[in-house]
Every structure is written in C-alpha cells, then in structure tokens.
Design a protein that fits this description.
195 residues; alpha/beta; Rossmann fold; 8 helices; single chain; globular
Amino acid sequence: MRTIGYIRVSSEGQNIARQKESLSDNGCTEFYIEKVSGASMERPKLNEMLEGLNIGDMIIVHEISRLSRSTKDLLTIVELIKEKGAKLKSVTDSWLDLSDDNPMSELLFTIFSGLAQFERKMNKQRQKEGIEIAKSKGKYRGRKTKLVEGGKEEQRMKAIIAAYKKGKSINDIRTTFRVGTGTIYRLLEREGLKN
C-alpha cells in the first residue's frame, strides 16, 4: 500500500512547496506533480498515477480543486480510483475522506453525484431546446466529426477500434490517442461495438 500525493499547479509561478509539505505531513512518500490548468483534460501525471494504482493505495490531495475543477470530472476520477480499489482523501476538504468506510463522506459524495447527473440532464434539455429553435430557423448544421472515414484520421480511427477489440479500456484509449471519451463512444457506436 502506497500513500501518494497528487499536486497540481496552474502556472509556473504557483508554489509547489506548500502543497508538497502539506502532503508529506499527511504521510505521502510518492508524488505526482502536474503543471497544467485544472480545466485541461490533458493531465499526463494524473493519468499515469491513476493507471498505476493498486488495491489499498491512498491518494491524498491538498484540496479537491487540485484534483479537478468540474464536478463531472471529479466524479469520473473518484470512480476510477474506487474501481482500482484505492482510496482518496483531501487535506483541507475534510468532507472528502474516502480512506475508510466513512458514511458521511459517502453520503456527500452520493449527493454530489446526484447533483452532477441532474446538471447534465438539464444541460442536455437546454441543448435540445436550442437545437430545435436553430433547426426551425434553418441555422443548425450539427457538429463536425473529429474522426472521418477517408480523411487523414482514418488510420487513427482504425487503431482506436483495434485497441478496443484487444480489450483496452476507454480511459487507456483516451490517453493513448488523445481523443475525448465522447468521440471514442461515438466511433464505437458507429461501428456497432457499443450501444
């Protein structure tokens, strides 16, 4: 069992030392340090840490905003951590302590999950209404697909499908090919590999 500290700073000017000291004081002996904005989905150190997790490992962050800026992203990360049998704790956000069977943290996390799901459904509803209005005015064209057959991305598209057929996880594919999760799912649905 390892105690891992995850540190993220948005810019070179931010100080890593404060977070590292806080995490060291909480037993961290291994650190993953990221120097990117929290809004960015390109976080190679986070992905490396998540991929290398083992059952019983503990991830500690100084505060939850260092791990994620969005509720949806946070929920995805926490689910990945749980799937690996690892645990998560925040030093300053005491409500987030999934280091043991803490009923209060589980309750709060469940509430956050529900709110995030509600937020997604409301956004989808608003988007649907906006599209209908745009269609009625003849202004809706839809989104351009990132992976197109016959285009320069065809080889990449075939490689993604091959990786999925070989049993690679969606997260592994996303990281390897630097493609969004939604793009992967749409491609797999189009190929009849996912419903």
